[in-house]
Amino acid sequence: MGYTLQGFIGPAPVLKTLGIRFRTAKVVSLSGELALVALDDALQDEINQDSDQLIEPWDIFTEKIESAGRELSRHGIVAYVEADYFGGTGDQSCVVWEKGQELLRETRSAKAINHALKLLGVVCSEDAVDEFDTVHLGRHRSVESWAEDQEHARPTLQISPVRENQERLAEAADYFWSRWGDESTFDFYRDCMERSCDTDADLPRFYLLTEGEKGSIAGGYALLRSDLNSRQDLCPWLACLYVEPRWRSLRLGSMLLDHAAGEAQAKGYDSLYLCTDLEGYYERYGWSCIGKGYGIDGAETKIYRLRPVKNGIQ
Question: Which of 230, 252, 231, 229 shows the shortest CA–CA distance to 242?
């Protein structure tokens, strides 16, 4: 009997972020907080995008899969593993990254996956043979079976326009208002979001970061024609950027910023603007302070620009 495995292993919240970039990613629980994303044919195709520069001596590990794993590790420690056995003969390989840095690379050995799991914090349980057995990696024997496991599936994070998910419109209006408004502004948020779903214009647009299509809201942002400040000569504006506290250790704010930049580019804009009082945050992601403006209450605010917008990043 054969056994084949190719995929990413890491904390479930970290692996869930793959869904923002790759719609075909499926997260399956292992044990504790660990989970697996199996690289079936659909996910391989989505990551490789018709370019499959295989890294020797791996089975399917390409330069783009390596890049995806390294980028994923910026949200938390993660491993990529391969195993191929038939009739009791075969081998394993692994790479482990954390914060974009490679911690371990081991190819064509007998215990590579155990070594990777140890770096991920797995301790062999008393009733298990090894770390591999501890996290139940023997539950399935093929990549396809892992990808089809509905019993242990966990929703991935995804970003979607409220306009395309209007059954959540009332929930979204309440969400944005509760994070950014006050008792006098609910109708403002509700009406703005309702209009955004009806208009043929490209703005405004509101976006939700959710666990799966119908899961809990983890954050969101908006693209607006005006952000209620004196710089009415500038457009469009990024506004209402928010990530729920329990998700803030995963750098989701940067992913929302990248998504917003990509959306602005897709709409034909070569710059994106925001106003804020924060110091040092947006500069990390390529934004530049271009001056100041004034809110309708007369308060001074800093104006930032991301330019040029290209493929979702500066």
Answer: 252
The span from the CA of 305 to the CA of 109, in Å, is 50
Residues 167 and 134 both lie in one domain: no
Residue 311, Cβ density class (10 Å: 0-12 exposed, 13-18 middle, ≥19 buried): exposed
| Contact criterion met (CB below 8 Å) for 32 and 52 | no
pTM for this predicted structure: 0.89
**DSSP secondary structure string for all residues of 203-233:** --EEEEEEETTTS-EEEEEEEES--SBS-TT
State mean pLDDT over 35-52.
93
Instruction: Give the pLDDT score at 311.
Output: 46
* pLDDT at residue 309 in the model: 54
50 and 138 housed in the same domain: yes
Q: From the DSSP assignment, how many helices (H) and strands (E) are in the chain? A: 10, 14
Per-residue pLDDT tens digits for 59-79: 999 999 999 999 999 999 999
> Which residues in 183-216 are b (16+ Cβ under 10 Å) and which e?
eeeeeebbebbeebbeeeeebbbbbbbbbeeeee
Tell whether 149 and 164 lie within a shared domain: no
pLDDT tens-digit series, residues 143-164: 999 999 999 999 999 999 999 9
